[in-house]
Specification:
By secondary structure, the chain is α/β, with parallel strands linked by helices. 37% of the residues lie in helices and 20% in strands.
């Protein structure tokens, strides 16, 4: 095992996949000489050359369009969108084209494409560098949407995404790039796309989360266990599409109470899908209201740090919501 940060694990995954398969290449704004705005691709152009680590124009539409074309003819592109906020110019390419190739061709055409993008707030990025966009894409059959919360999962899931025959959106919590640390196996391993992870076991209630919020939820679960004797189970979804419905429902059937945490706007966020799933398929196990803790319904994460802290869920807010639900 080697201790890594989240960003180090992501870099290691791309390095290994570039070395393993000559069809793999990376493209995006500043991914080459600069090593990426967050340095996720640092050192890779020196190691693999400018034909495999390709600096692109500032044009997300063309980054994804080129990735789709390359994938259709057998390459394995990793397209970086510098911030998830800027993925929208490529929305039609992703939703209208990449997601539908396999279905429209009756399984003949594959699009082995990975689109990486840092998402979320907490870094003082303001309205245009802090958005959570996962709910838009988790609505679309034909895509896979992956959001890891640990270095172990980030490396294993990214390697699995590169080898997947169809498009994967891989969202990375930029707030956790250097603040989340964990042990990563030194040898070759994959984490399968799909299954959720029980990050903390408990039987009083279940907290559902992903990405940075899954990390915060584990901290909050430890806090309330130590301070209040509340045993909260934390389900780290890891993959939103396909969703591990079995694990989601099994945990709720055990605890009977659910708190769903995400930093996107409350209304229409992915947590609403979890709430609907529980209400529809496990109503008879309900022992309290299904609660959501999320960002407020405002257009974006404010730049001012005081307002940013108001917007973002954090371990203390999650712990407070756990205590409130446990007492119901």
């Amino acid at each position: 095992m080697t201790e890594m940060t989240l960003i180090q694990a992501i870099t290691a995954a791309m390095d290994e996949e570039l070395a393993r398969d000559e069809r793999v290449f990376i493209t995006g704004e500043d991914v080459g000489v600069r090593g990426g705005v967050f340095r996720a691709t640092m050192g890779l152009i020196e190691k693999y050359g400018p034909q495999r680590v390709v600096d692109s124009p500032l044009a997300e539409l063309s980054i994804v369009g080129i990735g789709i074309g390359a994938a259709v003819v057998g390459l394995r592109p990793i397209c970086e969108i510098q911030f998830a906020d800027y993925i929208f110019p490529a929305f039609n390419q992703i939703v209208g084209e990449a997601a539908r190739f396999y279905y429209r061709s009756n399984g003949v055409w594959h699009v082995p494409l990975v689109i990486r993008a840092p998402y979320g707030g907490g870094v003082g990025g303001g309205l245009y560098h802090s958005q959570s966009v996962e709910a838009f894409f988790a609505h679309v059959p034909g895509l896979k949407v992956v959001i890891p919360s640990t270095p172990h999962d980030a490396k294993g899931l990214l390697k699995a995404a590169v080898r997947d025959p169809n498009p994967v959106l891989f969202f990375e919590a930029k707030k956790g790039y250097r603040s989340i640390r964990g042990d990563v196996p030194d040898g070759e391993y994959l984490v399968p796309i799909g299954p959720a992870r029980i990050a903390r076991e408990g039987d009083d209630l279940t907290v559902y989360a992903y990405g940075m919020m899954a990390h915060y939820a584990t901290i909050a679960a430890d806090m309330v266990r130590e301070q209040d004797g509340i045993h909260a189970e934390v389900v780290d979804l890891r993959t939103l599409l396909p969703l591990d419905r079995e694990t989601v429902l099994a945990s709720y059937r055990k605890t009977g109470k659910a708190l769903i945490v995400y930093e996107d706007n409350l209304t229409g966020g992915f947590g609403a899908e979890i709430a609907a799933l529980l209400a529809e398929h496990a109503f008879e196990h309900m022992d309290g209201p299904i609660r959501r803790l999320a960002g407020p319904d405002v257009p974006g994460v404010p730049f001012a740090h005081s307002m940013q802290e108001f917007f973002m869920p954090n371990p203390e807010k999650i712990a407070h919501a756990i205590r409130d639900l446990a007492a119901y």
